[in-house]
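Quick one:
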Amino acid sequence: MNQTLLLSLEKLAAEQPDKISVSDDVQQLTRQQLIQHVETVAHELMEYQHQVIGLFADNSVQWLIMDLAAQRAEVVLLPLPLFFTPEQLQHALKSSGAVGLIHDRPLTLEANFLAESYLLSSLSMHFTVCRQLTDITLPAGTAKITFTSGSTADPKGVCLSNHNQYQVSQSILTVLQMQNVRHLALLPLSTLLENIAGLYTPLLSGGEVILLSMQQTGFTGSLAGNLQPLLNTLSHYQPESLILVPELLSALVMAAEKGWQPPQSLRFIAVGGSRVASELIERARRYGLPVYEGYGLSECSSVVSLNTPNHDKPGTAGKLLPHVDIQMEAGEINVTGNSFLGYIGKETPPENTVATGDMGYLDPDGFLVIQGRKKQLLISSYGRNINPEWVESEVLANPEIFQCILFGDAKPFCSAFIYSGLSDALVENWLSQVNQKLPSYAQIIKWRRLESPLTVKEGLLTTNGRPRRDRIFTLFQNELEAIYQESQYGIF
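Output:
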């Protein structure tokens, strides 16, 4: 397996062995200490070389050590989200052929699926052996398996090489031109974007990564709770970079508008996962949140394009990273240059090309514009094509509207389900403003309030916050039908 990332970190450790590279609320590790810990854990993992091991744990220094040790020991790592149900967890382990699971919490999997368990002393985590009935063949060179957050089907296991991952982190470094970055990881490290752009990139820049548990940061994947712990964490640790999903960005903008002072240390905030209205980005920047939108997908080892301080156009997903190229086929974005190795149990993808399923184009200045998911296109009963993410992003430009799901496929007008702390009157007022910017066929005519937020845990959102529209539609089908039955509107 390619170990360029580890060799680069070892080179940095040789140059400045005592520089802090990773920390949490109780410990700091220098570059040299990090490498030493990686070697110790890798030694314990050597017996599992070329086999798959799952990692089911909260953000921590140990998570990073395990990730790098797997590369050193040539173990295939399977990072698993904490919100996975026991059924999803077992499916991921079985389908990938995992021989064991490293975890920091009790497991509730089927007893006959698990064998012996012991403490992995070098990590202070448990290793539980999995009973496998069949051997799984993975594409040659597989170093990591990440499960996609597909919106219409069960997640698929994407097989990536170390080179896939290193290439993305190196390209981000090249376009950002930032050294010694101090990054605070807010998203789960099982999220590929945080794993690559939030661990590898800052470390390769010669910087430091701050890894706190999700409970400590106050962001557990939903903003239903109190935002204050997150604000306190940001103010206390004074990071230089962050990675956010749009919902989290909205919450920070709202806090800033109510008097919270964002850390002056912030130099770069990446936001991705779904489309972000340019108005929200500009609003964030006015309050000292240097936000830049990007675009990527698991099959390309995360980031494909990114706005940067040197090349920036809000409302777009930025310029392509130097290692990739794109072609358009009937409006769909196809990416070449860093294709994944294949899905678990599927044939290898052809000719290093990924059909993204996203509709878009390059504008005259070379910035990538994402119009929405090909399969999620709404077609009204009047034959108008509507990308729901476009309309939703305009609604979500108001940071006090946390979630907006648009409906209207085969219907005469658009309706929406909205989760917000605003009163009905204020939501109505905002929607009126949004509608003035939209063509008549895309305007929101009716809306209903969500009493509680849609969550990943309920299976209604993907891991990066995108709505699983088919499941949401099924859940609210009766209410939607009632909306359209009670309304009679003419042709727009």
